[in-house]
Design a protein that fits this description.
Radius of gyration: 32 Å
Organism: marine metagenome
CATH architecture of the largest domain: Sandwich
Helix content: under 10%
Structural class: mainly beta
CATH superfamily of the largest domain: Immunoglobulins
Protein name: Cadherin domain-containing protein
Number of helices: 0
InterPro entries: Ig-like_fold (IPR013783)
CATH topology of the largest domain: Immunoglobulin-like
Pfam families: Big_9
Strand order of the largest sheet: 6-13-12-9
Order of helices and strands: EEEEEEEEEEEEE
Length: 162
């Protein structure tokens, strides 16, 4: 615990994140006589928010199991932490198991999503946002039944094939 004296004011300054007690002894003197008094100064804990580590932009391919990303955070108070996450699109399934974030694209989805991961100590929380891109995979062509008579005339171009 640091302290400063200005005129007749004693100011006590505990260090950041310090909790505990300190015995303070004050001595006053007029160059002839002195007096001493002591007291206990108690600094009580204040809950600090956890801090989540930023997640880097990542990618996967469509029609895959996606990616599992390890989340990391710290809490100066040592509180138990829980994680959660959301995506800005329904094309991405977001699940959390302990500190592992799984991002799995739904069938045939591709594009870029904004994902936000959160950490909470039960009272306070922190978050980080990142981009997650699902890359398009060329799907194989598929056959279809074409029923036609000999007199039908059909123009086929690449644009009307799917």
């Amino acid at each position: 615990v640091g302290l400063t004296i200005s005129s007749d004011t004693l100011k006590l300054n505990p260090a950041i994140n310090y909790t505990g007690t300190a015995k303070i002894t004050v001595v006053v003197s007029d160059n002839a006589l002195a007096d001493t008094t002591s007291f206990t100064f108690k600094v009580i804990n204040v809950n600090d928010a956890p801090v989540i580590v930023a997640v880097a932009t990542d990618t996967t391919y469509e029609d895959t199991d996606g990616k599992a990303l390890k989340l990391s955070a710290s809490d100066i108070d040592g509180d138990a932490l829980t994680y959660s996450a959301v995506s800005d699109t329904s094309g991405l399934t977001v699940t959390i198991s302990y500190d592992t974030l799984r991002l799995k694209p739904v069938a045939d989805y591709f594009g870029t999503s904004s994902v936000k991961a959160f950490v909470s100590d039960g009272q306070l929380k922190d978050s980080t946002a990142f981009s997650f891109t699902v890359l398009n995979v060329q799907d194989a062509p598929y056959a279809f039944d074409w029923l036609s008579t000999a007199s039908d005339s059909i123009n086929i171009t690449q644009s009307n094939l799917t």
